[in-house]
Structure formats: C-alpha cells, structure tokens
Amino acid sequence: MKKKLMIGMALALCATGLQAATIKPEKSVMAIVNGTKITAGELTIKLWWQNGAAALSELIDEKVILEEAARLKIKADAKEVESRMVAMFSSADKAQFEKNLKALGWSEADLRELVTRQLTIRDAVMSVKKIAVTEDEMKTFFESNSEKMITPEAVDLRQIFVNTRAEADALLETLAVGADFAKLSALKSADATLKKNSGSLGFINKGTLLPEIEKEIFALQEKTYSTVIPTGNGFSIFYVESHRTPQPAVFEKVKDELKVAMLNQSLSQKLPEFAKELRLKAKIEILP
C-alpha cells in the first residue's frame, strides 16, 4: 500500500486513532490522593515545565514557515487534504475516532485545518529547499538496500477470541467436528473487529508476534488451526489460511514507497534548517 508523506506526530496519531484524555477546565479535579485533589491546572503546569520549551519552539517554527508559505502563495492541495481526511476516518472505527476527537475538544473542521497546515509546511519546505528524488537515486538506493527490503515469511491468519478457557475449549470441540472457522469467529468472537471480519487478520509477518505464540502459529500447516492459546485477557484459537515464503523486493513494486521514504528523510533534515533561516529574519519575543 502506497504510503503518504506526513510531517508531524499529530497526523500520525490521527491516522491510527487518537488516544487522549478529555480536555478539562483548569479547576477540574483529575485525581484524589489520600483526600488531596490534583487539578487540571496543576497538570498543565507540570506538563509545561516538562515539555513547554520544546513545544513552544515547534510552534514558533510552524508559525514562521506558514507565514513564509503565505508570502510565497504556497497552499496545500485541497484534494490531498480531503484524501487524508477520508483515509483517517476509514482506517479506524468512525464512531470511536469521532469520540477521540471530541475528547481532545476538536471537531472535524479542526482536524482538517491541522492537516492543511501540516501539508502546507511540507510543500513549503519542499519548494524552497528544492527537495526531489530522481529515478536514478531511487535505483541506487534500492540496489544498496534490497536485502533489507525482502518481504518476510508470513501467514494469512484468522482468529477466534473469547473471554474464558471454557468457551475456547467448547469452540475447539465444535471445530473438531467440522465447523467453519470463519463463520464460527463471526458468531462467537468477543472482539467486535474479529466478528466483523470473520476472524481475518490478513497476512502477519514472522517476527511480529510474541515468540511463544509465533512458534506455534508458523508451525501449522495451511488450513489447520491451533490449540487454545492464552492471549491478552482471554483465549484464542488461530487458523492458517496460507503461508507466504520470503519474497525478494522488486523495484517497480516498492519505488513509490521508496520515494516517499527518501523524501521524508530529506524533509526531516531540511525542515529545521529552513525554520532556523526564517527565525533569523523574524521578530520573536519569548515572554516570561
């Protein structure tokens, strides 16, 4: 899947589902320790002392780059902004995503404005610093790093997850008499996503699971299922649809992702340099 250019941790968080505590008024009580209250205001002060200088510096960099982008009439492409918004909302449970936004005190319009700012900063840095990657540069990089780009061994995996060992054992007996694994997961899994996807996890690369689970799963033959395995707060049964052997990288298949990675690397190097140049020309007052 083609990856997109992305500057800033905020976008990455949005893309995977925001995890944040609800923003509360300064005097709101966040915790009580032996009868003593800790307020949101105290938490804000603590966070400021820990991270305030770095956060302020980042905001200053953002401000001077956005002002320069406006001067140069550089704007984020509206179609790309909308594409990012659609991707973020479709990559996670929409209701949960909206709930997480609300917890931050954000609306969809706030998120769109954030995406617009981040893409404007990206485009400004790329334009002014003339960041580009040629086909020859990509091929040279590919030839030097192709061994690192091998697609690892993987299994196309399904899972049934339930809360108790007794439930799992009963399902194992049902499978033993010929029940369809996918249908059983859709009916019995305690996890909503597994129910929706009939237990499908897609291809799981070797090296991404816990060693004790991975050893059993990768030892399974195709179209066979595992024993009951404790996972998280419950118990699982896994089913291997198929095995995929390690695949060598093919330039034509990875060049889009390779281009993005190389551009991102250049952006990460050039953005601080660009911000520093703009700061030297700006009037900045840090108030006590």
Describe the structure.
Helices cover 56% and strands 14% of the residues. It is α+β, with helices and mostly antiparallel strands. It has two domains: 9-139 and 251-281, Triger factor/SurA peptide-binding fold, CATH 1.10.4030; 151-244, Roll (Chitinase A, domain 3), CATH 3.10.50. The strands form two sheets. Strands 3, 4, 5, 6 and 7 form a five-stranded antiparallel beta sheet that branches. The protein has a two-stranded antiparallel sheet with strand order 1-2. Strand 1 and strand 2 (36-39) form a beta hairpin. Helix 2 packs across helix 11.
Q: How would you sum up this structure in a few lines?
A:
This protein folds into two domains: 9-139 and 251-281, Triger factor/SurA peptide-binding fold, CATH 1.10.4030; 151-244, Chitinase A, domain 3 (Roll). The protein contains eleven helices and seven strands. It has helices at 9-16, 40-71, 78-90, 94-103, 108-128, 135-145, 165-176, 181-188, 192-196, 211-219, 251-281, and strands at residues 29-33, 36-39, 154-162, 200-205, 224-225, 229-231, 234-244.
Fold blueprint:
Elements: H1 9-16, E1 29-33, E2 36-39, H2 40-71, H3 78-90, H4 94-103, H5 108-128, H6 135-145, E3 154-162, H7 165-176, H8 181-188, H9 192-196, E4 200-205, H10 211-219, E5 224-225, E6 229-231, E7 234-244, H11 251-281
Features:
single chain; 288 residues; alpha+beta; Triger factor/SurA peptide-binding fold; Chitinase A, domain 3; five-stranded antiparallel beta sheet; two-stranded antiparallel ribbon; 7 strands; 14% strand; disordered N terminus
